[in-house]
Automatic annotation (TrEMBL):
This is Dehydrogenase. It comes from Novosphingobium indicum. Belongs to the short-chain dehydrogenases/reductases (SDR) family. PANTHER family: 3-OXOACYL-(ACYL-CARRIER-PROTEIN) REDUCTASE, 3-OXOACYL-[ACYL-CARRIER-PROTEIN] REDUCTASE FABG. InterPro entries: NAD(P)-bd_dom_sf, SDR, SDR_fam. It comes from the Bacteria. SUPFAM superfamilies: NAD(P)-binding Rossmann-fold domains.
Length: 298
């Protein structure tokens, strides 16, 4: 099966997109699927996004139907799935998108912070998959589950400790579930992003982080990306959506239990940065950068 045939075969399928009405990636997922002819039923806690996404998708082959649900509240997510059980009946695709964290040292956080990080980045995924499974089975054609994780699930992400643990839980949960559901042809995979325009990624930084960047000028963040990302640019929304369409299409029918890293190469580098002032790729700065840093403090 070729690329065009695989995308054409998505038309007429039904997708559930949790967190699919707002944000660059969530909204992008719903619209990309609708463009491919998929009927999308999404939920989100952003009421403005819910109100506007239907109109944005009106000209697309698949269309988007949006509902309110807050994944932080198990009862709210259950209400959404109760609707799906009663009114939709079956589905072919499940996308679990939401997440969230605030950067902080572990000893500056509390149990409420931990509980929220675990719920937003792991707990709701378990609930969503369990509620969606009967819907996927009713299609009779297998199905595809894609859970969004992060590069932080694969490295020691200091100041994101509980978040990183929760995302790692989602990653290994997805791997284990893929094994359980393999014989039913229900595939379970993850997409791990890193530096994107996602709302949750931006919200993770503290106000003082943004202030320091602003003081350095408009191109400070793009310069940081050049040091950090081997491809010298952050992935765009379309890059992530291309990976998503691949994982939900029959092009990946033999792929399950894996994580697709869409990050411009940061999972490959894992700490090897392209330092300036002649230092090039190393985990830590060498003489050129260290001298410049020293000069700036003189």
């Amino acid at each position: 099966m070729g690329l065009l045939e695989a995308h054409k075969a998505l038309a007429g399928k039904t997708a559930i997109v949790v967190g699919g009405a707002a944000g660059f990636l969530g909204r992008g997922a719903s619209l990309a699927l609708a463009q491919a002819g998929v009927r999308v039923i999404c939920c989100d806690n952003d009421r403005e996004g819910i109100a506007s996404i239907g109109a944005d998708a009106a000209s697309l082959p698949g269309g988007v139907e949006a509902h309110y649900a807050d994944v932080a509240d198990p009862a709210s997510l259950d209400e959404f799935y109760d609707y799906l059980d009663a009114e939709i009946g079956q589905a072919d695709i499940l996308i679990n998108m939401p997440g969230g964290v605030r950067r902080s040292l572990f000893d500056k956080t509390n149990r409420e912070d931990h509980a929220r990080d675990i719920r937003l980045n792991y707990g709701y995924v378990v609930d969503s998959c369990q509620r969606a499974l009967p819907l996927l089975r009713r299609s009779g054609n297998g199905g595809s589950i894609v859970n969004f994780t992060t590069i932080e699930a694969h490295r020691g992400a200091a100041t994101f400790a509980v978040y990183a643990g929760a995302k790692a839980g989602t990653t290994n949960f997805s791997r284990a579930l893929a094994v359980e559901l393999g014989a039913e042809q229900i595939r379970v995979n993850c997409i791990a992003t890193d530096t994107t325009l996602a709302r949750a990624s931006n919200a993770a930084l503290a106000p003082e982080d943004f202030q320091r960047l602003a003081e350095l000028g408009a191109d400070a963040l793009s310069k940081a990306i050049e040091f950090y990302v081997p491809q010298k640019r952050a992935p765009e929304v379309d890059d992530v959506m291309n990976g998503l369409l691949f994982l939900v299409s029959d092009l990946s029918r033999a792929i399950t239990g894996t994580t697709l890293h869409i990050d411009g190469g940061t999972i490959a580098s894992l700490g090897f940065l392209d330092w300036p002032y002649g230092d090039s790729f190393m985990p830590a700065p060498l003489g050129g950068t260290l001298k410049k840093l020293g000069d700036s403090h003189d």
